[in-house]
Specification:
The chain is mainly alpha-helical. The chain has 5 helices and 2 strands; from the N terminus they run αβααααβ. The radius of gyration is 15 Å and the shape is globular.
């Protein structure tokens, strides 16, 4: 069965706000989450890269082996594996306000882009150099936003 998701890649994090702006007026989602839930999850991930991931981390030896392998594969393939399980406690709430979540995501992305000190270690991958963290976020964000389909053609 063909995927209902849209093909989506971002060459840089600055390409993301225009895509979200296209989605906000009229869209549908083809996954299990609403666009507000997607943006909430992405805000959480960006915030955690800045401030630390709460209560979730593989032991350092696993980060250095399994984590490095998984990150290298993700960056090489330029995509997130399908159906990667997210612990229930990190899943977004069921009913969220889209304008609120869009605003939160926008301000968090701006904060991430202006951040100049080292980023927090990823719970699976461990410490990541900034260029790879940026690529990871672009891939991760494209993965989730690919489930949101704009209903209006771009002008």
């Amino acid at each position: 069965m063909p995927s209902l998701r849209r093909p989506l890649t971002f060459s840089s994090l600055s390409d993301i706000p225009p895509d979200i702006a296209r989605l906000l007026p009229d869209h549908t989602t083809v996954g299990q989450w609403s666009l507000a839930q997607i943006l909430s999850h992405l805000t959480f991930t960006l915030t955690s890269s800045l401030d630390g991931f709460p209560g979730l981390s593989l032991p350092r030896p696993l980060q250095l082996t399994l984590g490095r392998y998984a990150l290298a594969r993700l960056l090489r393939k330029n995509r997130i594996p399908e159906r990667f399980p997210l612990p229930r406690r990190f899943q977004p709430a069921p009913h969220l306000d889209l304008p609120t979540e869009s605003s939160r995501f926008s301000s968090t992305l701006a904060r991430y882009l202006s951040h100049t000190t080292p980023l927090a270690p990823h719970p699976l991958f461990g410490p990541i150099p900034r260029p790879n963290y940026d690529r990871y976020h672009a891939i991760h964000i494209a993965h989730h936003l690919s489930f949101a389909i704009p209903m209006r053609l771009p002008k």
